[in-house]
Amino acid sequence: MKVGRSQAGSIAQTQLELEGVHCAGCVAKIENGLRQIEGVTSCNLNFVNQTLVIESSQSVSNMVETAKKVIRDIDPSIKVKEKVPLQKMKLTIEGMDCAGCVAKIEKGVATIPGVQSASVNFVAKQLTIEANAEQLHHVAVQTEQFIRQLDSKFTVHREGDSSAERQSQSVSEGKSKLPYVRLAVSIGLTFVAVWGGLSSNISLALFLIAYVLAGGDVLYKALRNITRGRVFDENFLMSIATIGAFIIGEYPEGVAVMIFYQIGELFQSIAVNRSRKSIRALMDIRPDYANLKVNGELRKVSPEDVQIGDVIVVKPGEKVPLDGKVIDGISMLDTSALTGESIPREVEAGSEILSGSINKNGVLTVAVTKAYKDSTVSKILDLVQNASSRKAPTENYITKFARYYTPVVVITAALIALLPPLFFAGEAFSDWFYRALVFLVISCPCALVVSIPLGFFGGIGGASKNGILVKGSNYLEALNDVKYVVFDKTGTLTKGIFVVTDIQPHGDLTKEELMRYAAYAEVYSNHPIAASILNAYAQSVNKDELSEYEEISGHGISVNVCGQHVLAGNAKLMRREGISFAEPESAGTLVHVAVDQRYAGYIVIADEVKEDAAAAIQELKLLGIKKTIMLTGDVKRVGDAVGQKLGLDEIYSELLPQHKVEQLEHIDAQKLPKEKVIFVGDGINDTPVLARADVGVAMGGLGSDVAIEAADIVIMTDEPSKIPAAIRMAKRTRKIVYQNIFFALGVKALFLLLGAFGIATMWEAVFADVGVTLLAVLNAMRAMKPI
To answer: Domain HMA spans what residues (predicted)?
Structure first.
């Protein structure tokens, strides 16, 4: 499918989806094969999302057929299809306080032509639609019409439409007192009708007025939904139950049930809105403005309007609006909203700073290094806000359960009302009809539909407060079944920073003299090992004392220092120069030094292990992890030393990216069907294996953008100890969700039995519905607390 042409109009771009590309080695074969085709100017296959982009002078249809043939020849099992360009659109739905509407909206919007997927975030009141880019406007119009038809109180506006948002907020504020007034009048009229000593006709009239005031909107919604073919929902159940109470002469009970139902709904709405505010507060890191420096003057602008390379000023107490590098100033930054760390971090000229942190004291002048859409704060907000679009299996199950549960209950209630009077002598229809009405009131599945997504969203929000970004509740739930944790080494278990760990002079030389020779030899090199030696030497090097400097590729350095010939490099350099030496067993890179063809000693340079790595491994084992494994491209000697120091179960060294994928697949083949495998990495070379794991975890502080995109969970602090913390958070969230499921179903089952046998009245039925829902919502809010 053509998505663009060059200015000359001769180059067309084709996008294809490839299913079945599991081998990273196939990527190069496919790209090389397609580049041989006449007219192809560029070809790129994204291994993570299996998308192939080809630019060619051929027509799109010819290019598609040619590409299919080439790919078929390379691997017949790979399926190729044209990629439809999809675009995401977000709509905010004001007035959505009933979780039962979520499934209706998702199901209805998904049927609109052009829509690929639709997901409602009940907590954020946001609908995310993925649709054909060419049909996006049509989809938006159709969606807005459908939602307004579903409920007239819903107001819909697109993301970024601030005027619509303000209008909807003012409307909702104006209407906010009306339900309370109606309920108060309804309660007052009911009291007068019951205890006012009025005639039966006047009392009935008051009951009817009170009933309409309390439940008019419920009756309207039920009737409207029936006309649209949507019968079985909470409005229908409450309408049938309360109208039935009037039919059998239980006027006070019919009105009271509707009043208590509405009171329960109000309390539920208050609880849900409070939880929404709490979750938003966890992620209240969006910057409102940036102080842009232009010609020596400051202009307050939107962060979206700042470009890479612009200079901004961050004053004390302000949020850092964009990622950048400090060019002037010293200050302390509060990064707790990003990383969960309470200790402020000191920054100065040259320091990298992240958007979303708060400047505590000094004035900072910052050169912007990333546009707002690519900044840390933007990515965090996007990850957390979109997390609910990937629903956990438990959420999907409950949504499906509620869809069939209500019709079954209605049918059961009808059988309760009709069968006993028909088949058993002496049974009054009015008694069993009343029991059926009680049965209906109890049956509403609101407690499950509301509290379960709220629990998962709270868990995701609590994890983000702890510096752990989970991209979906499905990944949060998957952490409960993890039994194998696989680590990369450099940048994951180690700091990725080389330091001198040991100095071993040979003969009469001192450590200081050996370091001096090595530092002078390495002064012109830009290799990380050379930098670590110069940092450890920590003295100035007089370059005038050097002569005949030569860098021997793959071996090391040869140089004269004050007339002495110095060699510094690896074992191959010593052998090449015929210098006798003993190579020790050491967990690090060895730099051998020789002076005037005599061996002078060696320096050990190693990547430091992170302080919390060993404790993280031990904690994982306490959490029931069967095996902790390390896959590294480093040499076996170094890999084994790090692995043994940390207490890892298995260590695999000298692996290329494709070998890591193969090793992970081998681990995956050994596990039980329900068990999950985590891979934790940070670099571009970890992207294929991150995508292949059941749950991919990226180190987000120092990790590459590609690794972060491919991962399912991002650790903002780069601390391995956050992995057991994420598993504990997942276990706590699942515990809360299961508590709500068993509590709601247990209480409802008990009261359904009591109602069927005539023990429970409508008063108990109301508690079994709205009371249980309220308790479940309050319990779900506990998931928001960070560990």
So the answer is: 12-79, 87-158
Cα first-last separation, the chain: 48
Report the alpha-carbon distance of residue 769 to residue 766 in Å, rounded: 5
Q: Nearest-CA neighbor of 469 among 716, 680, 723, 787?
A: 716
Helix (H, G, I), strand (E, B) or coil at 704: coil
Tell me the residue type at 337: A
Residues paired with 331 in a beta bridge: 347
Sign of CA dihedral 689, 691, 692, 694: positive
Backbone angles phi, psi at 89, to 5 degrees: -135, 140
**Average pLDDT for 102-114:** 81
Q: What is the CATH T-level fold of the domain 307-370, as seen in this structure?
A: 2.70.150
What are the start and end residues of each CATH 3.40.1110.10 domain in the chain?
495-608
> Can you list the positions of beta strands (E) in 621-667?
627-631, 650-652
Q: Considering the entire predicted model, what is its pTM?
A: 0.62
3-state helix vs strand vs coil in the chain, percent to 5: 50, 20, 25
Write out the two tokens for 660: 């890591």
Could you say which DSSP state residue 785 is in? S
Give the DSSP letter string of 478-520.
HGGGEEEEEE-STTTTEEEEEEEEEEEE-TT--HHHHHHHHHH
**168 has a pLDDT exceeding 50:** no
DSSP for 350-390 reads: T-EE-TT-EE-SS-EEEEE-S-GGGSHHHHHHHHHHHGGGS
Asked if 596 is an active-site residue, the reply is no
The per-residue pLDDT for range 404-446, each reduced to its tens digit, is 777 787 788 888 888 888 888 878 888 888 888 777 777 766 6
Residue ranges matching CATH 3.30.70.100 in the chain: 2-82, 86-175
- Choosing from 323, 488, 607, 682, the catalytic residue is 488
Q: Are 591 and 605 in contact (CB under 8 A)?
A: yes
Q: Hey, how many other C-beta atoms are within 10 angstroms of the C-beta on 317?
A: 9
Kindly tell me if the per-residue pLDDT of 448 is higher than 70. Answer: no
Cβ-in-10-Å burial (0-12, 13-18, 19+) of 309 comes to exposed
For 206, residues 6+ apart whose C-beta sits below 8 A from its C-beta are: 189, 190, 192, 193, 196, 198
Tell me the residue ranges of DSSP E strands in 340-477.
345-347, 352-353, 358-359, 364-368, 468-470
Token duo for residue 37: 């085709």
CATH for the stretch 495-608: 3.40.1110.10
pLDDT-based confidence at residue 745 (cuts at 50, 70, 90): confident
Is-contact 597 617, C-beta < 8 A?
no
Architecture of domain 86-175: 2-Layer Sandwich (3.30)
Residue type, 670: Q
DSSP class of residue 782 equals G
On whether the CB atoms of residues 550 and 558 are closer than 8 A, the answer is: yes
CATH class of 473-493+610-711: alpha beta
- Residue 728's CB: how many other CB atoms inside 10 A? 15
Separation of alpha carbons 193 and 256, rounded Å: 12
Distance between CA 474 and CA 390 in Å, rounded?
6
Which are the contacts of 472, defined by CB distance < 8 A and separation ≥ 6?
387, 388, 389, 390, 391, 392, 712
